[in-house]
Amino acid sequence: MKRYDVTVIGSGMGGSACALVLKRLGYKVLLIERGTHPRFALGESGTPALSRKMRFISRTYDIPELEEMATYDAIKASEDGFLCGPKEMFQYFVHQKGQTQPGQFGAFPEVIVQTPEVDAQYNRAASDKHLMEVAVKYGVEYSDETSVEDIEFHDDRVDIACKKHDKSYVVVSDFVVDATGFNSVIGKKKNLKLQGEAVGTPLKSRCIFSHFKDIGSFDEVINNCPSKQPDLSPVPRSRATQHHCFDGGWLWFIPFDNGVTSIGVNLDVDLYPMNDKEGEAEFWEIIDQYPMISNMLKGRETLMPFIKTNRLQFINKELAGDRWAMLPASAYALDAWFSTGLAATFMSVHRLVDILHNRMLPKKQFDKKLLLDYELSIRKEYFHVAKMVDGMYKSFKHFDIFKNYCFFCFMGTESYLEKGGAGKAVDLNHLLLSAGDEDFVQKFEAIYAKIVEYSKYETVSDEDVEALAKFIREDMKPFNFRKYGSPEMHSVHPRRPLNMVEYDEPRERRHGT
């Protein structure tokens, strides 16, 4: 019977990347996929943290194809490019019910932060298929249309009962990586999933989403405004992830090069409780209250049925164990705000591969104790990011609060990158959105408490608004690289390249023969 060093279950971008890097390190790796490629997946938007981590993994483990996937420009320049879209900005606009013009209710309620380089919007059907094919090209064994019927953990091995078409068989492996997503095979096997109040986070959101064809242009909405508001955007908003926010929720607009835009409305469950409405009907019921959004979407073709979720958030009681570990999409679910999913995944791939290669596989030691920091890293990130995103939902009610608070996500990422976080594997001081920086977390927690308080008010004072902006300018100065909170920026922050120091270090070829 054939035995593998590592079996990875699930061939999304994270699973395929994990299998690929392990293969480059010289291990015998099997990648199992329940379905076939191409297939739909969520988590479509890249970020600076993702592009830098992908580039670091690419150069460290000598996988040039990963660097070719790291940014939009790299994908377009590659001979093996695939369907994607440009992400050159994070753009936010806070709407009020019935609003037909951008400046209708006073100050222009927009915030723009340009990315250091042009990140990618990933059409996951295309990107997942491409990365799986790269893994196979490098020698990863791949089995699709293969369901995992059961997993049995033993002291000396893992037995994975598989079924492909009508054939049942057992795969033997030293270690298993669960990259199966929401319906984690190990989470189900061990009854680990926590949902509802047991999750332990204040963030409570749900989602309704689809893909639209040839939507209207928000740049035209801005430029046709009778008030002649100067357009300060450094690039067209069609090259951004657009966030259309309102009290109780927000929409993502993620554009691809073929004229398709991924669109989803995310809702605060406390303000928009679950109900029995059909997803499409509820989507339009909400969107019709915001004419500037509705006018861009009405009459446009949708390319897939509207998908309506329950509360998104869950986490498993255990994220790793003897001879197994989960990648983030299997370990938990958060919310689409700030597109943390793919970045968290590739950060965890780097951590897990480093532990397997340096501590587990050479010595054939697979005790959970060797994975405690891996698990703790993911947990710290989960609860930190969940609280930060919860604050976003609570800030939508007051634009003057939102326009300052929203910068915490950027300061957290930019500080992580400036301090060399993209080059770190398992390091509890370098985590997603600076979740491992005690000074940053302490300052964030103080402001989060204020945001929760402000969300209970119908109005907030000018003094409170200025105090928040001053806190960001002064108290957050060690983390504030782009004058966030400064009035002269007019809530528009153009590109500032981040340092690339970790890529100037000698590049060791770490993989085996």
Automatic annotation (TrEMBL):
Claim: Glycoprotein is one of the keywords in the record: no
Gene3D superfamilies (alphabetical): FAD/NAD(P)-binding domain (3.50.50.60)
Annotated PROSITE patterns: PROKAR_LIPOPROTEIN (PS51257)
Key words, A-Z: Monooxygenase, Oxidoreductase
Annotated protein name in UniProt: FAD-dependent oxidoreductase
Organism listed in the record: Dyella acidisoli
Classification of source organism: Bacteria, Pseudomonadati, Pseudomonadota, Gammaproteobacteria, Lysobacterales
